[in-house]
Specification:
The protein has 510 residues and is α/β, with parallel strands linked by helices. 29% of the residues lie in helices and 23% in strands. The chain is built from 14 helices and 27 strands. The strands form 6 sheets. An 8-stranded parallel sheet has the order 8-15-16-17-18-19-20-21. The radius of gyration is 24 Å and the shape is globular.
């Protein structure tokens, strides 16, 4: 057996595809031989050669059989025992958000306040005066207790508004100019919007915003242009191509984002197969679905679909906004709230299901999980049995009574195994899902810029191992397993949600 190096050609097929115009077909054959090809076929899991004909796999087997396809124009690559695995499908990711962050001030991976300050100062110097300074990725752990201050950001960026978010986007650091443009007073007159952090002594804004306040100030910043969306998409898909991500599900696509996807598809620029989830406005009812149907028909192509629908049922556990069946520990009577009434949710899901949408629900707390499953169960009764690909995303907590319902309803549980503080609990949940034979999808709900965390596969050990920047990870939890036709790839555990994990159940399904 050839010596196996820590090399995976997971992205090879996609890279070849990416060099071909989307509206054309590749000419000639490509032969990969002398490889360790993992097929996901239980009867024949390994092969040494593969042939691509006109952009499709035409043969998988031994080298001798592959060479029979050689002819004029054929390219042949001898891989020397290196590994080829199927492309990754990510069922919950934000490629446009990640690509846009690559255009902004990037503050990721800095672990000291002075490093963050230096990066912000450099970003401000590189931007034209008068434009907003937008950026993200800073970690609260880089700062002393209390975090960065408005006054410090005023010093670093004195001549324009600045808004810099943490990696997860739920916290922002802003300067006085940004608050003023948003109409937020910097005196002690009280909060005009929820989520403005104030100094306990002076009661003036500290410059830290949470949740609702982040969105409130962000709405006063210029929205991305069509050109910026297109460039963001180019950057994020280039990263996907390099790491073998062949099919991302954009978990929250606004209308401008859908337009950018469509423009890229028409121009032949899409090098991944995108499923875009249109966001449902929970303040409206089923009447909005006609608009979704029109967009679904308009935003579609060879590598693009917009037939998924995203519904946010609740918030976040660490902010006590996830909807729970029981009160939060240490917070008497606090259970969080559903963002939509169950009867309204049921009506939306029933109609979306009838119209063939893939339903994608943010459901963090166990009450939200139950509400989502209830709505899907009602739609099954109303619309009849068929092959459905609905999923509940995040599933921070789920009642044991509801876990079995995932299988009965054919709903995938999509959650992030390495979000801080949740590794062990989520590992237990994953094992139970697997024991029951249910659908499980693991992601890190990341911007695509974090998709450089991928996997290597060791043919000798018959296992997949997560890596980060070429180094095997220290984490070796129960989720790093391969089980029949279901391989897991996990990501690095970071304080903020960071990285990506790209599993897929089955072979070639979408």
């Amino acid at each position: 057996m050839p010596r196996f190096g820590f090399t995976v050609i997971a992205a090879l097929l996609l890279a070849l595809l990416a060099r071909t115009p989307a509206r054309g077909e590749p000419a000639g054959n490509l032969i990969l031989r002398g490889a360790a090809i993992y097929t996901l076929d239980a009867a024949r899991p390994w092969a040494s050669a593969l042939v691509i004909q006109n952009g499709r796999i035409g043969y998988v087997g031994d080298d001798t059989g592959a060479l029979a396809f050689a002819g004029p124009g054929t390219r042949a690559l001898a891989l020397g025992g290196r590994m080829v695995i199927p492309g990754f499908h990510d069922s919950h990711i934000h490629p446009m958000t990640g690509g846009m962050r690559l255009l902004w001030c990037r503050l990721n991976d800095f672990r000291a306040a002075q490093q963050v300050y230096a990066a912000v100062r450099a970003c401000a110097a590189a931007k034209p005066k008068g434009t907003w300074l937008l950026g993200g990725g800073w970690s609260p752990e880089a700062f002393a207790r209390g975090g960065p201050s408005r006054r410090k950001l005023d010093e670093l960026v004195p001549d324009r508004p600045a808004l810099l978010t943490t990696e997860d986007g739920y916290t922002a650091w802003v300067n006085t100019s940004a608050l003023a443009l948003a109409g937020i007073a910097t005196d002690s007159s009280g909060s005009q919007v929820e989520g403005i952090e104030r100094d306990p002594t002076t009661h003036k804004p500290t410059g830290i915003l949470k949740d609702e306040a982040v969105g409130f100030v962000r709405r006063h910043a210029p929205q991305p242009t069509e050109a910026e969306y297109r460039e963001a998409l180019r950057r994020s898909t280039a990263i996907a191509n390099r790491f073998g991500i062949t099919s991302p599900v954009d978990a929250n696509a606004s209308e401008p984002v859908l337009d950018a996807y469509r423009a890229a598809e028409v121009a032949g620029e899409l090098t991944v197969r995108v499923v875009a989830a249109q966001r449902i406005d929970l303040s409206r009812g089923v009447e909005q679905i006609e608009e979704l149907l029109a967009r679904r028909d308009r935003v579609r192509g060879r590598r693009l679909r917009s037939d998924a629908a995203k519904l946010f049922l609740d918030g976040e556990i660490d902010r006590h906004t996830a909807a729970m069946l029981d009160p939060y520990e240490g917070a008497t009577g606090v259970r969080g709230n559903l963002l939509v009434k169950p009867e309204a949710l049921a009506a939306l899901v029933r109609r979306l299901d009838a119209d063939g949408f893939l339903i994608h629900m943010h459901a963090m707390g166990d009450k939200a999980v139950r509400a989502g499953l209830d709505a899907i169960e009602q739609s099954v009764r109303a619309n009849g049995e068929r092959d459905r690909r609905h999923q509940l995303a995040h599933v921070g907590v789920a009642s044991p009574d509801d876990i079995v319902r995932f299988g009965r309803l054919g709903v995938a549980a999509n959650f992030q195994p390495l979000w801080r503080g949740s590794e062990r609990r989520r590992g237990r949940f994953a094992r139970r899902i697997l024991r029951l034979g249910l659908r499980l999808a693991l992601t890190c709900t990341a911007p695509m810029k974090s998709a450089h965390r991928t996997a290597v596969a060791d043919r000798r050990a018959r296992r997949f191992t997560a890596v980060h920047r070429g180094r095997p990870l220290a984490y070796r939890g129960p989720l790093l397993v391969e089980r029949r036709r279901f391989a897991y790839v996990t990501c690095r555990a970071l304080p903020a949600r960071h990285g990506t994990a790209l599993p897929r159940r089955g072979s070639g399904s979408r």
